[in-house]
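<given_protein>
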Amino acid sequence: MRLTVSKLSRFMLRGLFIVLPIVITIELVRWVFMTVEGWLSPSLETFVPPHWYIPGMALIAFLLICVLIGFSAYSRRGARLWRIPGRVLAAIPGINKIYGIIQDLFEVMSGENFEDESVVMVKLPNSEVELIGIVTKKGTEQNDRIADLLGEEQLAVFLPMAYNVGGYMIMVPKSCTRNLDMKPAEALQLVLSGGLGSKKAPDTSVK
């Protein structure tokens, strides 16, 4: 095979597309590991003798703390207790915006606060074009600012944009949507990647 500049360029680009996601993922994991290790290791070393301490113990301790916090949050008293730090951050001007965005992002990615059939296909009016969206509010919900703006047969749907962290929130009739058998996190990943990162097509059957 004769090598040319154009072929070498294509080989290099293909190699970059293979290597860079691996390198970036490893670096992100390493950054998280080093951050948690540097944050907790001084406190942990006060309880563990220096000759017993092994790098990585702080990360294990952090995961165990998260397990304990998650377990305690299942009780009413525990849930109220762990809501206090969030309420404090939400009351600080400026910081409350950052905290709110991060909290909402994690809630969307976890999918815990979404009901079944939260991912829908939204049909644009007078068009055959459809967009994947995530139902965030329903008109039947009580004591909610967004839900109060909706009719009983309306939905608030978030439409994420490909290769972007932004999106649109639209209010549409239920008749303009059809449910997808997909989790919100899967829908976000599918849309944000422009559909290029998923090999498996979603089940678009109506429920």
User: Anything to note?
Assistant: Residues 32 and 59 are 9 Å apart (CA to CA).
